[in-house]
Design brief:
By secondary structure, the protein is α+β, with helices and mostly antiparallel strands. Strand 6 and strand 7 form a beta hairpin. It has a 5-stranded antiparallel beta sheet. A 3-stranded antiparallel beta sheet has the order 8-9-10. The protein has a two-stranded antiparallel ribbon with strand order 1-2. The longest helix has about 35 residues. Helices cover about 50% and strands about 20% of the residues. It contains 7 helices and 10 strands. The protein is elongated. It has 2 domains: about 140 residues, no CATH class; about 110 residues, OB fold (Dihydrolipoamide Acetyltransferase, E2P), CATH 2.40.50.1020.
Length: about 270
């Protein structure tokens, strides 16, 4: 099954979930009393308002933690739509379990805990299917609209980066790549995205990428660096005599050029 867009891992989308979903739950319950939830939250002791606030805070906490975890793992996991739906269902079920702990205390002696837990999960699922579906569809529409407006790119100029497991992680135009830096078991792909400099860490090695980088015009300038010569303004030497390539973006650090590669790099300028 097709994997979800990387946009679903980004912080703006995750913020939508952990802000909109709890707010929707609070307002929807307050306005429509779905599934007779007001009596359920009141637990027969006029605690509706208190328990509504507490369950909203629980939902906020669960989704915030879950979405932060999704953001942290964005470079490690690669979910397809089935697994992403399982992730979302897991959020709802876990939040329902937290609800049942709170409400189970109030309903103790009246209803068994299993009844309270099942009701919490089913009610929450019935309510949250709306914000989850709406946000997901809105993000998909945004992705489709952005693709429709995107300029046509020559396929031959695209570099496809795969990780150690041969999984495709990033597709970017060779012209947008500024440089590649090796760091332990990762390489950092420094590239331009809508006029902004971005760092995409990829679990791979320089040796594994060397052929595809050379094929797309990037040159090695150091044992830990490949550089896009078209973005180099000049190569200068610092006070210690070490050569540094100055790129055409102000907020990008100078890239070291070792003696071994100095002549081949300067010959391209």
């Amino acid at each position: 099954m097709k994997t979800i867009s990387r946009i679903f891992y980004d912080m703006p989308v995750n913020c939508l979930f952990f802000l909109v979903v709890p707010l929707f739950y609070f307002l929807f319950v307050l306005s429509y009393n779905p599934f007779g939830i007001s009596d359920f939250l009141a637990v027969g002791k006029e605690r509706f308002t208190l328990n509504l606030i507490l369950t909203t805070l629980i939902l906020l906490g669960v989704i915030t933690l879950s979405r932060m975890l999704l953001y942290i793992l964005r470079h490690i996991i690669d979910l397809n739509w089935s697994l992403y739906i399982v992730w979302c269902v897991g959020e709802v079920v876990f939040a329902g379990l937290m609800f049942s702990i709170l409400l189970g205390i109030g309903w103790a002696g009246v209803h068994p805990y299993l009844w309270v837990m099942t009701r919490c999960i089913l009610i929450l699922a019935g309510i949250l299917v709306f914000p989850y579906a709406i946000i997901s569809m809105a993000v998909q529409l945004y992705i489709l609209n952005r693709r429709a407006k995107a300029p046509v790119v020559d396929e031959k100029t695209l570099i496809r980066f795969h990780d150690e497991q041969k999984r495709l992680k990033l597709i970017v135009s060779s012209e947008a790549v500024l440089y590649i830096e090796a760091e332990e078991n990762y390489v950092h792909i420094i590239h331009l995205d809508n006029g902004r400099v971005k760092d995409f860490p990829l679990r791979s090695s320089m040796r594994a990428l060397e052929e595809v980088l050379s094929r797309h015009g990037l040159v090695r300038c150091h044992r830990s660096y490949f550089i896009n010569a078209s973005h180099v303004d000049l190569v200068r030497k610092d006070t210690n005599g070490f050569a540094l390539a100055q790129l055409d973006w102000e907020d990008v650090k100078p890239i070291p050029v070792s003696k071994r590669y100095y002549e081949s790099v300067t010959a391209l300028l």
